[in-house]
Automatic annotation (TrEMBL):
<dbReference type="InterPro" id="IPR027379">
    <property type="entry name" value="CLS_N"/>
</dbReference>
<dbReference type="Pfam" id="PF13396">
    <property type="entry name" value="PLDc_N"/>
</dbReference>
<feature type="domain" description="Cardiolipin synthase N-terminal">
    <location>
        <begin position="39"/>
        <end position="78"/>
    </location>
</feature>
<protein>
    <recommendedName>
        <fullName>Cardiolipin synthase N-terminal domain-containing protein</fullName>
    </recommendedName>
</protein>
<keyword id="KW-0472">Membrane</keyword>
<keyword id="KW-1133">Transmembrane helix</keyword>
<feature type="transmembrane region" description="Helical">
    <location>
        <begin position="57"/>
        <end position="77"/>
    </location>
</feature>
<keyword id="KW-0812">Transmembrane</keyword>
<keyword id="KW-1003">Cell membrane</keyword>
Length: 81
């Protein structure tokens, strides 16, 4: 438990060390990433499986767990044009 508190404290210290502009930039990037992930998951749910490269069940955790590369990969590679 003490190790986790050290990690959390370290993250808080790093965040507090950022300037206001850097915090804003990080927030904008997080918002874009969240919106992209939501769009990709919604698109995956609504798209016919014949228009997807690979099974839908495999793309769901990739989009959800692989951060930005997951949803970008789905949109660029996973979805047939």
């Amino acid at each position: 438990m003490a190790k986790n508190n050290g990690i959390i404290r370290s993250i808080k210290d790093a965040w507090n060390g950022l300037s206001s502009d850097q915090k804003t930039f990080a927030g904008v990037l997080a918002t874009i990433d969240t919106a992209g992930k939501a769009y990709a998951l919604r698109d995956l749910a609504r798209t016919n499986s014949k228009r997807i490269r690979g099974p839908k069940w495999l793309w769901t955790p990739i989009i959800g767990a692989v951060n930005t590369l997951g949803w970008v990969g789905y949109l660029l590679i996973g979805k047939k044009r």
